[in-house]
Structure formats: C-alpha cells, structure tokens
Design goal:
- By secondary structure, the chain is of the alpha/beta class.
- Helix content is 45%, strand content 14%.
- Strands 2-1-3-4-5 form a 5-stranded mixed beta sheet, with helices on both faces.
- Helix 3 links the parallel strand 1 and strand 2.
- Helix 8 packs across helix 9.
Length: 197
C-alpha cells in the first residue's frame, strides 16, 4: 500500500460512516486472523473525546490502524515513539492527526484551566492559540469559531512537532515512504475533513 492509498482508504472509510453504510465485519474472524500478527496501514492520533471513536468514524476494523488517543490530540515522547514503531518497524504508510470540533481540551487551554496533571497537558495546546489570526474575536470559549480554529491550529502544531522531534519520521516523510496528514472531525456531521499541509 502506498501513502496515498492509505489516505484514500481513511477518506473512503469516513465516507462509509457518514453515509451509514459501514463494512459488515465479522469481529470474531478478525480476532482470529490477526492473532499471529498485525499489519496496520496507518497510525492515527486523535482526541480522547468519547464522541470521536476513531476506528468507528473511519470505519476501520481490527488490525487495520494503530490508534493513539489523548485529550487534545497532543504529542508526547511516548506517542512519538509509538509512531516510530508503527511506521519504521511495522510498515504503516500514513500518520494522521485528527482533531475535532467543540473540543473540551481546546476549551480548557483557552480558559487556562488548572487541574492536577491536566494543567501540563493543556499547556501543550496553548501555542496553537497564537496561530489563530488576531481578527478572530472574541478569543473565548463562547466563540465556537475561535475554538475550532484553535483546534485546527493545534493539529497543524502537532504535525510540525512530529517532523521536528522525530528524525526517523521526518526522513521517512521527506523520502516519500510515509505521508503525514491532518484533519478535523465534525461532531455534528461525523465527517472528517483532511488537509495535507
């Protein structure tokens, strides 16, 4: 599978989900078929939000994709190492970072929420706030357009961090072995809108 084909499959899977025509799967057969090995074609970093179960909204089955979920789809060293494993050692052809509309983690960062370990996680989102044009106002969680623009800026920030912080993945991206894409999931429609850069 090529990186382009991997992206096409994620897009097709989301289209099936949105249309209400997912692939009929035999999960028990898939469990048996994948017990001795796995060959996921993509790794997806998405938010922890329960309304964005990424395998379901992309209509993927057991063994199809690696899935990393964390509030605000932020990046840390463990997730980055997992992506290196997925791509360099397991042969995944695509990394997709997918944020979503009306994201609670984004709102928490905007509101400067303070709560235990969550505080440090939300700090990872805050640089994305500066990437939203200054004419988008008010810059509060009451402005859903601002919230969603910060969420998209955060996806782009994470994509940039993947390239900057992993020489392994950067070399694979630059040589065309893998593709790095971002996207936004709309909670109200179920649609993922992908963007390449």
């Amino acid at each position: 599978m090529t990186p382009e084909a991997a992206l096409a499959e994620l897009k097709a899977g989301n289209a099936r989900f949105v249309s209400g025509h997912p692939i009929a799967r035999n999960n028990q057969a898939d469990v048996k078929a994948t017990a001795s090995g796995q060959y996921p074609y993509a790794v997806v970093l998405s938010c922890l939000d329960s309304r964005q179960p990424i395998e379901i909204v992309l209509d993927q089955g057991i063994g199809d994709i690696f899935s990393a979920r964390i509030a605000g789809n932020v990046l840390n060293d463990d997730i980055l190492g997992s992506m290196e494993f997925a791509c360099k050692l397991s042969g995944s052809k695509l990394i997709a970072v997918i944020g979503h509309s009306n994201c609670g983690a984004i709102k928490g960062a905007i509101d400067d929420a303070q709560l235990g370990n969550l505080t440090g996680l939300l700090d990872k989102v805050k640089p994305a706030m500066d990437d939203v044009p200054s004419d988008v106002t008010p810059r509060t969680t009451k402005n859903s357009e601002y919230v969603d623009q910060v969420a998209e800026a955060n996806v782009r920030l994470v994509m940039k961090q993947i390239r900057e912080r992993s020489p392994v993945l950067r070399e694979m991206i630059d040589s065309g072995q893998i593709k790095l894409v971002g996207g936004m999931y709309d909670l109200s429609t179920g649609k993922v809108t992908f963007f390449d850069k």
